[in-house]
Amino acid sequence: MNLLQAIRYPFGDRAWPRKLGLVAIVSPVPVFGQLFALGYAVTTLRRLQTPEHDGSLPEARLGWDICWLGMQAMVLTLLCGLVVGFLGAPLYFGQETELDPLMPAMVQALQGPSMLLITIVSTVLSAAVLARFARTGKFSSALDPIELWKMLRAEPAIWVTAAIIGYIVTEGPYALAWVLPLNGGWDTAATVLACTVLWTYGQMINAHLIAEAATWSTHSAAVRAAEVRYRW
Question: Which of 35, 75, 101, 153 has the smallest number of Cβ neighbours within 10 A?
Fold first, then answer.
């Protein structure tokens, strides 16, 4: 997994100021901006998983089609969180936690070992689900437990690493803005910047990391399947 390549990838396209600029400009718009940025990241993830990928960014055009992709991705992520949270509910028995509703997700994840474990599992599952959804474009395929198990089983260490780094680059800026002792309006400016432009850039890095993990998983699964056939 190449983190530096993931960081540089969005700027490899000569038209990146026009493409990413539009996404960055739209990102502060409530609801629409976040859905558009997330949908564009899914579109990027889909392109990165195609064999004919040439390193260029997908076109960014205002429209509900990209927002619809973002809404589907958000629903899938929420479903992963609900499933993992439900299965991990016994870990919270007997624990007293008081969480601020405005507290960043990363800060909440660091409130205890149970919360951290559930966050990591949910993040890894969400990454695999988004990879499946970007590749197939179908909810049923994205949530196929057998295919998800094959992907995660092929390269579990890469999936965990990619998911954790992706989570840090997307949620980290807001967490940093929340914990820093800023005042005089700087706290608001930092929060807006973290939740819009930096969050969008983090989604692009996350898309590249997920695509790398998916590619490694596909390759490893194919090699192991060939070895099994050879042995028989």
Answer: 101
Contact status, residue 48 vs residue 211, Cβ threshold 8 Å: yes
Does a structural domain hold residue 9? yes
Q: What is the pLDDT confidence band of residue 184, given thresholds at 50, 70 and 90?
A: confident
Instruction: Please answer whether residues 104 and 82 qualify as being in contact, where contact means their C-beta atoms are separated by less than 8 angstroms.
Output: no
Buried b (16+ CB within 10 A) or exposed e, 5-35: ebeebbeebeeeeebbebbbebbeeeeebbb
- Cβ atoms of 80 and 122 closer than 8 Å: yes
Q: Is residue 95 part of a domain?
A: no
User: What is the span of the domain harbouring residue 42?
Assistant: 3-88+105-231
Write the DSSP string, 8-51: HGGGSSTTHHHHHHHHHHHTTSTTHHHHHHHHHHHHHHHHHTST
Ramachandran angles phi, psi of 98, nearest 5°: -120, 105
Q: What is the pLDDT of residues 103-133, one digit of tens each?
A: 788 888 888 788 889 999 999 999 999 999 9
- Locate all alpha helices (DSSP H) within 110-196, ordered by sequence: 113-136, 139-142, 145-154, 156-179, 186-195
Tell me how many domains the chain contains.
1
Whether the Cβ atoms of residue 56 and residue 16 lie closer than 8 Å to each other: no
| Mean pLDDT within 189-196 | 87
The letter for the amino acid at 91 is L
